[in-house]
Write a structure and sequence with these properties.
Layout (H helix, E strand, L loop, with lengths): L1 H17 L2 H14 L7 E3 L15 H10 L6 H4 L16 E3 L14 E7 L4 H10 L4 E6 L12 H17 L6 E4 L3 E2 L5 E9 L3 E12 L2 E14 L12 E2 L2
Parallel strand pairs: 1-2, 1-5, 3-4, 3-10
Antiparallel strand pairs: 5-7, 6-7, 7-8, 8-9
Length: 248
């Protein structure tokens, strides 16, 4: 009985992580192009981006160009609908850190960062280790014991330490500056073309688009972008760019 159970378990694992390998292949290649080359990884929202409604986003001359490239180009792919969403955790995408699932879905980097206080005379080696291995969106800030947390904003020396920690975090943890979202790919019937929507969210704004891709011998090439989208975060009591923290 052990051998059949083992075979079933292996099959289930492979099916879970490798289902629809064309999805993984396409998204990995899009990420290679869209994610900055100096990123070691990128933050991805686990739930796939909902496909925006598309009506007449392509101009007639653009459709003619697609037809000139391939007289059998499936124009219906531009307008095809899909309401299904995916969980990218199931697709074993490469170089990915997933944005944690929360009750309120987080699709952009938080507007504030958590502060973790450490002793002021901490050794440099220990400080570097803490800044390297801390939780995402967390600042490691040196604090003298007699600095009151309640009056800490009145302390110029603390504010200097805070700005220093903010600068270090900004320089070292560049991957945390942007969250990526990808829609579920929609493929043409022959599998040669695909449509995907991409959105990049920064702390204060976001930009996205829908694109058509063509498979050339296993390599997906972007043909055209359309349906450009932008978002802007506004705050009532401060500017989004301001240093904003919270601590326990």
């Amino acid at each position: 009985m052990k051998q059949p159970f083992l075979i079933i378990s292996i099959f289930f694992t492979l099916n879970l992580l490798g289902q629809n390998p064309e999805f993984k292949n396409l998204i990995d290649q899009i990420a290679d192009y869209e994610v900055p080359v100096n990123f070691e990884y990128y933050f991805l929202v686990p739930e796939s981006l909902e496909q925006p409604k598309i009506y007449d986003s392509l101009q007639n001359y653009q459709i003619r160009e697609l037809k000139m490239m391939d007289k059998n180009f499936p124009v219906n792919l531009v307008y095809e609908k899909s309401d299904e969403t995916l969980n990218w955790n199931n697709y074993d995408l490469k170089n990915v850190e997933y944005v944690p699932d929360k009750r309120i879905k987080q699709t952009s980097p938080p507007s504030s960062k958590k502060v973790r206080f450490v002793k002021y005379n901490i050794g440099q080696k220990e400080y570097d280790s803490l800044t390297k291995n801390r939780e995402p969106h967390t600042l490691i800030v040196k604090k003298k014991r007699f600095w009151s947390k309640n009056k800490i904003w009145e302390n110029d020396k603390f504010f200097a330490e805070l700005k220093k920690a903010w600068r270090i975090d900004k320089e070292r943890n560049i991957e945390e500056k942007v969250y990526f979202q990808f829609s579920k790919p929609i493929f043409s019937k022959n599998g040669k073309y695909a449509r995907v929507s991409v959105f990049k969210n920064w702390r204060c704004n976001g930009r996205g688009f829908t694109a058509l891709y063509r498979n050339d011998n296993g390599q997906w090439k972007k043909l055209i972008e359309f349906n450009g989208m932008v978002s802007q975060l506004s705050m009532s009591h401060s500017r989004c760019e301001d240093i904003s923290i919270w601590y326990e």
